[in-house]
Amino acid sequence: MKRTKKHSHKTKKIIGIVSLMILVMTITFCFSGCLGKGRLREKLRSRNQIEQNEATGNMDFACDNFIPGIINGYGSGGPYGMSVQTMNNPLWKGKPISVFFPKGVSGKRPVIFFSHAYGASDWKRAYTPFLQHITSLGYITVYSPYQTLRADFDQRYATLWKGFELAVQKFGNQMDLTRVGFVGHSFGGGATPAMAYKGLVDMKWGKRGAFVFILAPWYSFQITPEKLREFPGHVVLLMQIYDRDDTNDHRMAIDIYHNFQLPDSQKHFQVVRSESINGCEIVADHITPGRNPSLRLKQYAVFMPFDAVSDYVFNGNPRGNQVISNRMPSVKSSVYHPLFTEKNPKPMLPETKYKFPWSNKDNQRRLLKTWK
């Protein structure tokens, strides 16, 4: 009996050791295999993404070769390099406020207050060409990041404005606040009317020149019909949409454009259209001002009207007004004309075509307008 028990004990011990070794080998194999499969899936995903980019986005780089670059006049940029100063925002410490200064410029300079798209808190990943272009003209630009997660619309607006306010407090001695522009894209475009109201009406900035440049706006908050009637009459509004934008319903842009109570001569609605050149397509989509890879599209559709409106508003150059009014071509080229002006814009596509339609419950202005 003793030998049997001792033998049984040894047998169990051996079986336990073998089982443990098998378990370790299984876990090791599974981990290695799963990791390998994960890496394989990642490689396949990356390859698919590369193929997708080559079939769509990155093709635009090649397409740019068919379009002459703008080397003179509006859209070509200015002579100044860019330096960046940063500062913290107590309402959101996730990303610093960035203030861009033109290098080698003395005296106070006009100021652009830039409201970025949702999630684009890192300007380097979204708007580098646009910000470099603005700064090259000799303007100071304030880029104020705001929260995306765990924040409501009012908190985001408060953070955005606080960044503008803090930048003015710190660098106001270098800013010409009698000449200002408010620029916004997507969520930032929807926020721009409220930001511009705070700056141009409440703070009375822009007495010698002010414009509002809104690109593919999302829903607008904190802006009532009454407030849209209170803007100074000398303000110039430039509204822009993109024909392949399936993110934000064009109705948001059309609504703000029609209800912004300014003289007709001070309001301009622009449509950027996609084009095919030599079988190569330049797509005017929602990310045109930012991550769209076509620099030519940005030059002709975004930089050029920005240059024209800022030159007209800040410097009084009538040629800038002629360009944004579509009365005078800025570039003599028969190759590429993506920018068109609409006098009385109307929705061209049903709301179902957009990720964020007009009738969405988040749109506080949806009750002000019923679209036919």
At a glance:
The chain is of the alpha/beta class and 372 residues long.
Tell me, what's the shape?
Answer: globular
The proportion of strand residues reads 15-25%
Kindly name the structural category: alpha/beta
Radius of gyration: 27 Å
| Approximate helicity band | 25-40%
Count of helices? 9
Strand order of the biggest β-sheet: 1-2-4-3-5-6-7-8-11
| Terminal residue distance | 96 Å
Number of beta-strand segments = 11
Mean pLDDT: 86
Low-confidence stretches: 1-7, 22-60
Description:
- This protein has nine helices and eleven strands.
- The chain has helices at 2-55, 59-63, 128-136, 153-171, 187-202, 225-228, 250-259, 295-315, 318-324; strands spanning 82-89, 92-102, 109-115, 140-143, 175-185, 209-215, 236-242, 267-272, 275-277, 280-282, 339-342.
- The chain starts with a helix and ends in a 30-residue tail after the last strand.
- Helix content is 39%, strand content 19%.
- Helix 3 packs parallel to helix 8 (295-315) and helix 8 (295-315) crosses helix 9 (318-324).
- The strands form two sheets. Strands 1-2-4-3-5-6-7-8-11 form a nine-stranded mixed β-sheet, with helices on both faces.
- By secondary structure, it is α/β, with parallel strands linked by helices.
- Mean pLDDT is 86; it is low at 1-7 and 22-60.
